Amino acid sequence: MTFAQKVKSALWAIVDIMACNTAQFVKNPGKDFSRDRKLGFVQLIHFLLCMESGCISHELLKYFYFLPDEVPTASALIQQRAKLLPETFRHILWKFNLRFPAKGLMGKYSLIAADGCEFNIARNPKDPSTFHPASGRSKKGFNSLHTVSLYDLLSKRYLDVVIQPGRLKNEFAALCQLIDRYLYGGCPIFVADRGFASYNVFAHALEKGCFFAIRAKDVNLKRLLAADSLPGRLDKWTDVILTRSNARKKRLHPEWNSLYRHICKAVSFDFITDSRPEYHMRLRVVRFQIAEGVYENIITNLPTDEFSLEQIKHIYHLRWGQETSFRDLKHTIGTANFHSKSPEYIEFEILCRIILYNFCTIITMEVPIEKKTEKWVYQVNLSMAIKICFAFLSDHVNPGNVNDLISRYILPIRPDRTYSRKLRFQAPASFAYRFV
Question: CA-based angle 68:69:71, to the nearest 5?
Fold first, then answer.
């Protein structure tokens, strides 16, 4: 059995095991999926994972090989899909990742990036939680969902995701939730951009026994260090004591007055209670120059004897791998082309596409690339590899040909290439006008 076959068998085996006890995955245990249907529990999960970007009726025709007596209607699919809980696909994601342990840094650390991504969905002004009124981005307004996901930078796969309504997004709370339910073991290092720098995030990682390296703004660093200005290069440990009260008389350690930082009641912090009015935190602050007059600040708890300033700089640089993965997740995998207007069922599709992305990258990471030249080292063309792996999952590619096909499509690795980010509004794809 080839490695690709092992990966596919592992994925379908998880679904088969779930089918033996559907109670925790359906809305009405004992009733849902109790009768024989063309789209039973296993068949429905298989279809949702293999579904491409076309309209629902066309996707059903393709999946059932255009056999008139076998193809269920789009209405039947919608009725069956309504019986599932989002935990169904989250369970598949977790179990599938655990079947194939991720690679580690220095033998024990896992580099886990956290970042947000926005998905535009069908316009619905009646949904205040997702509808953004007319602005410079859109003259008519638009609806969106916001995701915050964990992404393994070395194994190139998604580990978990929190999906929030676009108008109610809270990236701090989402990352805290992801850290609390992290279940892959080892020594994770959570790497995140400056939008995630908060005392609450740091505390959740410390309480979980995890490491982090999170970028911070200059103003946040000045408040942390109680400094008016910042040097060009910095690498030091600092202690802070967090409290809800600004009254000096209530401080338990008045001799350390300079370490106290006040957190107002409007700011979330989960570890200050009546029985624990103060929270002590020890952080490492790193600052380095990346261009003329441009500096980056990293707040971390990585040990100094194992991680130098240059190593932390390199770790944060690797975070860009998640940014590029969003492009493949949205466009190559087709996550941007939804088949529903309901945020609940769009959540299903996002989780399905993430599972599919992981399926493709797990196979692709094991494909050997031998071609080298004096100028370039080569890598897999991930866009083509994803298409090949997807066709293999849908039984359109012989298992023995998967590696050969993937290794045919390669690209040179060109380090230090930079592009300006182009931010623009993209309308969701119409349900009716698709041909895939």
Answer: 70
